[in-house]
Amino acid sequence: MSKNKGKIQRQDYKQGPYDHIHYHQHGERHETCISLVPIFNHLEKEQMDEIMAVTYPVSYKKGENIYSAGDKSDSLYIVSKGKIKIYRLSESGKEQLLRILHPGDFTGELALFSETVHEEYAEAIEETSVCTIRRSKLQQLLLKYPSISIKILAEFSSRLEQSEKQATGFATEKVETRIALFLVECLDDEKQSMEVVLPMNKKDMASYLGTTPETISRKLADLEETGYIKQISNKKIKILDLEGLQSI
Asked: 20 to 30 A from 174, CA-CA: which of 19, 25, 120, 166?
Protein backbone atom coordinates (compact mmCIF):
# COMPACT_ATOMS: atom_id res chain seq x y z
CA MET A 1 0.00 0.00 0.00
CA SER A 2 1.61 3.22 -1.15
CA LYS A 3 1.75 6.31 1.02
CA ASN A 4 3.29 8.49 -1.70
CA LYS A 5 2.10 12.06 -1.73
CA GLY A 6 2.18 14.29 -4.77
CA LYS A 7 2.69 18.00 -5.20
CA ILE A 8 0.11 20.58 -6.12
CA GLN A 9 0.29 21.47 -9.79
CA ARG A 10 -1.94 24.55 -9.46
CA GLN A 11 -0.10 27.54 -8.08
CA ASP A 12 -3.16 29.48 -6.94
CA TYR A 13 -4.37 26.78 -4.55
CA LYS A 14 -3.60 27.50 -0.90
CA GLN A 15 -2.21 24.76 1.27
CA GLY A 16 -4.95 22.82 3.01
CA PRO A 17 -6.48 19.36 3.42
CA TYR A 18 -6.03 18.60 -0.27
CA ASP A 19 -2.37 19.63 -0.54
CA HIS A 20 -1.32 16.07 -1.39
CA ILE A 21 -3.32 15.78 -4.62
CA HIS A 22 -2.56 16.61 -8.23
CA TYR A 23 -4.77 19.21 -9.87
CA HIS A 24 -5.32 19.19 -13.62
CA GLN A 25 -3.96 22.12 -15.61
CA HIS A 26 -6.20 25.16 -16.12
CA GLY A 27 -8.67 24.80 -18.96
CA GLU A 28 -8.92 21.02 -18.86
CA ARG A 29 -12.58 20.18 -19.24
CA HIS A 30 -14.16 17.60 -16.96
CA GLU A 31 -17.67 17.18 -18.33
CA THR A 32 -16.99 13.47 -18.61
CA CYS A 33 -17.14 13.17 -14.83
CA ILE A 34 -20.74 14.33 -14.86
CA SER A 35 -21.89 12.69 -18.10
CA LEU A 36 -20.45 9.29 -17.13
CA VAL A 37 -21.83 8.81 -13.65
CA PRO A 38 -25.35 7.29 -13.51
CA ILE A 39 -26.50 9.49 -10.63
CA PHE A 40 -26.13 12.58 -12.85
CA ASN A 41 -26.38 11.56 -16.51
CA HIS A 42 -30.20 11.51 -16.47
CA LEU A 43 -30.31 15.26 -15.85
CA GLU A 44 -30.71 18.00 -18.44
CA LYS A 45 -27.55 19.60 -19.82
CA GLU A 46 -28.16 22.84 -17.90
CA GLN A 47 -28.47 20.86 -14.68
CA MET A 48 -25.30 18.91 -15.38
CA ASP A 49 -23.51 22.18 -16.12
CA GLU A 50 -24.61 23.40 -12.70
CA ILE A 51 -23.12 20.30 -11.08
CA MET A 52 -19.93 20.62 -13.09
CA ALA A 53 -19.49 24.14 -11.76
CA VAL A 54 -19.05 22.83 -8.19
CA THR A 55 -16.73 19.92 -9.01
CA TYR A 56 -12.97 19.97 -9.35
CA PRO A 57 -10.79 17.42 -11.16
CA VAL A 58 -7.90 15.69 -9.43
CA SER A 59 -5.31 13.23 -10.74
CA TYR A 60 -3.57 10.44 -8.86
CA LYS A 61 -0.56 8.35 -9.75
CA LYS A 62 -0.63 4.57 -9.55
CA GLY A 63 -0.38 3.52 -5.91
CA GLU A 64 -1.51 6.85 -4.43
CA ASN A 65 -4.28 6.89 -1.84
CA ILE A 66 -7.41 8.89 -2.52
CA TYR A 67 -8.29 8.43 1.14
CA SER A 68 -7.44 6.11 4.04
CA ALA A 69 -9.43 4.57 6.89
CA GLY A 70 -9.83 7.19 9.60
CA ASP A 71 -9.70 10.15 7.22
CA LYS A 72 -12.55 12.64 7.37
CA SER A 73 -15.26 11.77 4.86
CA ASP A 74 -16.59 14.97 3.34
CA SER A 75 -16.60 14.52 -0.44
CA LEU A 76 -17.98 12.44 -3.27
CA TYR A 77 -15.33 11.05 -5.64
CA ILE A 78 -16.28 10.24 -9.24
CA VAL A 79 -13.86 8.27 -11.44
CA SER A 80 -13.48 9.81 -14.89
CA LYS A 81 -10.40 7.83 -15.98
CA GLY A 82 -8.43 4.91 -14.55
CA LYS A 83 -9.29 2.51 -11.72
CA ILE A 84 -9.54 2.69 -7.94
CA LYS A 85 -9.62 -0.23 -5.53
CA ILE A 86 -11.65 0.01 -2.34
CA TYR A 87 -10.42 -2.27 0.44
CA ARG A 88 -10.24 -2.80 4.18
CA LEU A 89 -7.43 -4.04 6.38
CA SER A 90 -8.00 -6.65 9.06
CA GLU A 91 -6.43 -6.31 12.50
CA SER A 92 -3.62 -8.56 11.27
CA GLY A 93 -3.04 -6.27 8.29
CA LYS A 94 -4.57 -8.58 5.69
CA GLU A 95 -6.17 -6.75 2.79
CA GLN A 96 -9.79 -7.48 1.87
CA LEU A 97 -10.74 -6.08 -1.53
CA LEU A 98 -14.32 -4.81 -1.61
CA ARG A 99 -14.67 -3.55 -5.17
CA ILE A 100 -12.89 -1.99 -8.13
CA LEU A 101 -14.14 1.38 -9.37
CA HIS A 102 -14.09 2.13 -13.12
CA PRO A 103 -14.94 5.33 -15.02
CA GLY A 104 -18.46 6.38 -14.06
CA ASP A 105 -18.28 4.74 -10.61
CA PHE A 106 -18.11 6.76 -7.41
CA THR A 107 -17.17 6.47 -3.75
CA GLY A 108 -17.49 8.56 -0.60
CA GLU A 109 -21.26 8.75 -0.87
CA LEU A 110 -21.82 8.25 2.86
CA ALA A 111 -20.42 11.74 3.35
CA LEU A 112 -23.55 13.09 1.69
CA PHE A 113 -25.71 12.26 4.67
CA SER A 114 -23.59 12.72 7.78
CA GLU A 115 -20.18 13.79 9.04
CA THR A 116 -18.15 10.63 9.41
CA VAL A 117 -14.76 9.08 8.73
CA HIS A 118 -13.81 6.57 6.09
CA GLU A 119 -13.74 2.94 7.20
CA GLU A 120 -12.02 1.83 4.00
CA TYR A 121 -9.04 2.66 1.84
CA ALA A 122 -9.25 3.96 -1.73
CA GLU A 123 -6.13 3.54 -3.85
CA ALA A 124 -5.45 4.30 -7.51
CA ILE A 125 -4.30 1.11 -9.23
CA GLU A 126 -3.30 2.99 -12.38
CA GLU A 127 -3.05 6.62 -13.49
CA THR A 128 -6.46 7.89 -12.42
CA SER A 129 -8.53 11.06 -12.78
CA VAL A 130 -11.27 11.85 -10.29
CA CYS A 131 -13.85 14.61 -9.99
CA THR A 132 -14.64 15.65 -6.43
CA ILE A 133 -17.72 17.37 -4.99
CA ARG A 134 -17.75 18.58 -1.41
CA ARG A 135 -20.63 17.49 0.83
CA SER A 136 -22.10 20.96 1.35
CA LYS A 137 -22.34 21.58 -2.40
CA LEU A 138 -23.83 18.20 -3.17
CA GLN A 139 -26.40 18.41 -0.40
CA GLN A 140 -27.70 21.58 -2.00
CA LEU A 141 -28.01 19.74 -5.31
CA LEU A 142 -29.84 16.83 -3.67
CA LEU A 143 -32.46 19.22 -2.32
CA LYS A 144 -32.83 20.86 -5.70
CA TYR A 145 -32.87 17.64 -7.77
CA PRO A 146 -34.44 14.77 -5.73
CA SER A 147 -33.93 12.33 -8.61
CA ILE A 148 -30.22 12.28 -7.73
CA SER A 149 -31.09 10.92 -4.28
CA ILE A 150 -33.09 8.10 -5.86
CA LYS A 151 -30.12 7.14 -8.04
CA ILE A 152 -27.78 7.14 -5.03
CA LEU A 153 -30.18 4.93 -3.04
CA ALA A 154 -30.31 2.51 -5.97
CA GLU A 155 -26.51 2.31 -5.91
CA PHE A 156 -26.58 1.71 -2.14
CA SER A 157 -28.98 -1.18 -2.71
CA SER A 158 -26.79 -2.69 -5.42
CA ARG A 159 -23.66 -2.49 -3.26
CA LEU A 160 -25.43 -4.01 -0.27
CA GLU A 161 -26.61 -6.91 -2.41
CA GLN A 162 -23.08 -7.44 -3.74
CA SER A 163 -21.60 -7.35 -0.23
CA GLU A 164 -24.11 -9.91 1.02
CA LYS A 165 -23.40 -12.15 -1.96
CA GLN A 166 -19.66 -11.88 -1.31
CA ALA A 167 -20.05 -12.69 2.41
CA THR A 168 -22.30 -15.66 1.64
CA GLY A 169 -19.82 -16.96 -0.89
CA PHE A 170 -16.98 -16.90 1.63
CA ALA A 171 -19.08 -18.86 4.13
CA THR A 172 -20.72 -21.47 1.90
CA GLU A 173 -18.90 -21.92 -1.41
CA LYS A 174 -15.70 -23.73 -2.33
CA VAL A 175 -12.86 -21.66 -3.78
CA GLU A 176 -13.31 -23.14 -7.26
CA THR A 177 -17.01 -22.26 -7.14
CA ARG A 178 -16.22 -18.67 -6.20
CA ILE A 179 -13.72 -18.43 -9.07
CA ALA A 180 -16.13 -20.00 -11.56
CA LEU A 181 -18.98 -17.66 -10.62
CA PHE A 182 -16.63 -14.67 -10.72
CA LEU A 183 -15.65 -15.54 -14.29
CA VAL A 184 -19.30 -15.87 -15.29
CA GLU A 185 -20.09 -12.48 -13.73
CA CYS A 186 -17.27 -10.94 -15.78
CA LEU A 187 -19.03 -11.85 -19.03
CA ASP A 188 -20.91 -9.05 -20.78
CA ASP A 189 -24.64 -9.05 -20.06
CA GLU A 190 -25.63 -10.46 -23.43
CA LYS A 191 -22.85 -13.07 -23.28
CA GLN A 192 -22.10 -12.31 -26.93
CA SER A 193 -18.44 -13.07 -26.33
CA MET A 194 -17.13 -15.90 -24.22
CA GLU A 195 -13.85 -14.08 -23.66
CA VAL A 196 -13.36 -12.51 -20.23
CA VAL A 197 -10.88 -9.75 -19.47
CA LEU A 198 -10.20 -9.94 -15.74
CA PRO A 199 -10.96 -6.55 -14.14
CA MET A 200 -8.13 -6.93 -11.64
CA ASN A 201 -4.81 -8.71 -11.19
CA LYS A 202 -4.61 -12.09 -9.46
CA LYS A 203 -3.52 -10.55 -6.16
CA ASP A 204 -6.63 -8.35 -6.02
CA MET A 205 -8.80 -11.17 -7.35
CA ALA A 206 -7.56 -13.41 -4.54
CA SER A 207 -8.31 -10.70 -1.98
CA TYR A 208 -11.79 -10.19 -3.41
CA LEU A 209 -12.55 -13.92 -3.40
CA GLY A 210 -11.02 -14.64 0.01
CA THR A 211 -8.12 -16.84 -1.07
CA THR A 212 -4.48 -16.54 -2.20
CA PRO A 213 -2.92 -15.70 -5.60
CA GLU A 214 -1.30 -19.15 -5.66
CA THR A 215 -4.69 -20.81 -5.19
CA ILE A 216 -6.19 -18.64 -7.95
CA SER A 217 -3.45 -19.74 -10.38
CA ARG A 218 -3.80 -23.39 -9.39
CA LYS A 219 -7.60 -23.43 -9.65
CA LEU A 220 -7.56 -21.66 -13.03
CA ALA A 221 -5.11 -24.30 -14.27
CA ASP A 222 -7.48 -27.01 -13.00
CA LEU A 223 -10.45 -25.41 -14.78
CA GLU A 224 -8.40 -25.24 -17.97
CA GLU A 225 -7.29 -28.87 -17.67
CA THR A 226 -10.91 -30.03 -17.27
CA GLY A 227 -11.96 -28.09 -20.37
CA TYR A 228 -14.07 -25.35 -18.77
CA ILE A 229 -11.80 -22.44 -19.79
CA LYS A 230 -8.74 -21.54 -21.84
CA GLN A 231 -6.25 -19.01 -20.49
CA ILE A 232 -5.34 -16.81 -23.46
CA SER A 233 -3.12 -14.43 -21.51
CA ASN A 234 -2.49 -13.37 -17.94
CA LYS A 235 -5.73 -11.35 -17.84
CA LYS A 236 -7.78 -12.80 -20.71
CA ILE A 237 -9.72 -16.06 -20.36
CA LYS A 238 -12.04 -17.76 -22.83
CA ILE A 239 -14.94 -19.71 -21.38
CA LEU A 240 -15.36 -23.00 -23.26
CA ASP A 241 -18.17 -24.57 -21.19
CA LEU A 242 -20.45 -21.95 -19.65
CA GLU A 243 -23.02 -24.40 -18.29
CA GLY A 244 -20.31 -26.56 -16.78
CA LEU A 245 -18.69 -23.52 -15.16
CA GLN A 246 -22.03 -22.42 -13.66
CA SER A 247 -22.60 -25.88 -12.18
CA ILE A 248 -19.31 -26.18 -10.31
From this structure: 120
User: Which among 165, 184, 219 is the end of a domain?
Assistant: 165
Query: For residues 76 and 181, what is the distance between their CA atoms, to the nearest angstrom?
Result: 31
Same domain, 211 and 242: yes
Residue 155: burial class (beta carbons within 10 Å; 0-12, 13-18, 19+): middle
Number of domains present in the structure of the chain: 2
User: Is 121 in contact with 69 (CB distance < 8 Å)?
Assistant: yes
Q: Is the pLDDT of residue 18 over 50?
A: no
End position of a domain, from candidates 110, 134, 165: 165
pLDDT tens across 72-102, in order?
999 999 998 999 999 999 888 888 899 999 8
> Are the C-beta atoms of 245 and 239 separated by less than 8 Å?
yes
Considering only 39-43, 100-104, 216-220, 225-229, which range has the smallest mean pLDDT? 39-43
Are 3 and 66 in contact, with CB atoms under 8 Å apart? no
- ∠ CA 187-190-195, nearest 5°, is 35
In this structure, the answer to whether residues 155 and 58 fall within a common structural domain is yes
Q: Confidence class of residue 28 from pLDDT cuts 50, 70 and 90?
A: very low
- Is a pLDDT exceeding 70 seen at residue 194? yes
- 6 burial level (CB within 10 Å; 0-12, 13-18, 19+): middle
* CA 48 remoteness from chain centre: 22
199 and 139 assigned to the same domain: no
Question: What confidence category does residue 213 fall into, taking pLDDT thresholds of 50, 70 and 90?
Answer: very high
Q: Return the SS3 of 10.
A: coil
